[in-house]
Amino acid sequence: MDRKSRQRPLRADAERTVTAILEAAERVLSSHPAATMEQIAEAAGVARTTVHRRFSSREALVDALTAWATRQFHEAVTSAHPDSAPPLVALYQATANVLRVKIGWGFAMSRSTPEDPDVARVHAEVLDQCDRLFRRALEAGVLRPGTDLAWARRVYYALIHEAAQSRSDEADDVDELATLVVDTLLRGVGGQGTVLTH
């Protein structure tokens, strides 16, 4: 066995350890934002020294957690194939994927700030993908002709935010929440024939 092949399991093991620490940090900090590194280590099932070896400080751990969640957010949108899947399918899948990240990584997502260049870059890429998806949806007739796309996207983001914030253990599952978001975006909540007169 050469040196390179001997190192592979160590790298994979190290990645699993880091992932376990980040997942534990999200769980613990969501419930107790002031939790210590020791509490996070205990939740991850690793020694405190292991956490300190991977992350130099609590701030470094939170920064890594934020970066991890940001990458998950980007992957959530990209994996829905917004540029190639049928627009309605891509819209639903992106919605479900993003809700999973926002609900599962709520603490980390709330910590991301536009001042962080990596976060800003990822969010800019996601906004571009969403813009293209909404244009495709308009061209395909999923959105009605003349729809103000900038307004439609803002409403969509607000619906996702509200769905993620209002979810509880008793709430509908993520797929049902995604259906509710897309249905509300495309059909609204008014009755048929509702007309606003001036």
Kindly describe this structure:
By secondary structure, the chain is an all-alpha fold. It folds into 2 domains: 55 residues, no CATH class; 130 residues, Tetracycline Repressor, domain 2, CATH 1.10.357.10. 73% of the residues lie in helices and 0% in strands. The chain has 9 helices and no strands. Helix 4 packs parallel to helix 7. It starts with a helix and ends in an 11-residue tail after the last helix.
Keywords:
198 residues; mainly alpha; Tetracycline Repressor, domain 2; 2 domains; 9 helices; 73% helix; 0% strand; elongated
Q: What count of domains describes the coordinates?
A: 2
β-strand percent reads under 5%
Number of H/I helices: 9
Structural class category: mainly alpha
Largest sheet: none
What's the architecture of the largest domain, going by CATH?
Orthogonal Bundle
Fourth CATH level, the homologous superfamily of the largest domain: Tetracycline Repressor, domain 2
Radius of gyration computed on alpha carbons: 20 Å
Mean pLDDT metric: 86
The CATH topology of the largest domain corresponds to Tetracycline Repressor, domain 2
Care to count the β-strands? 0
Helical proportion, percent range: over 70%
The unreliable regions are 1-10
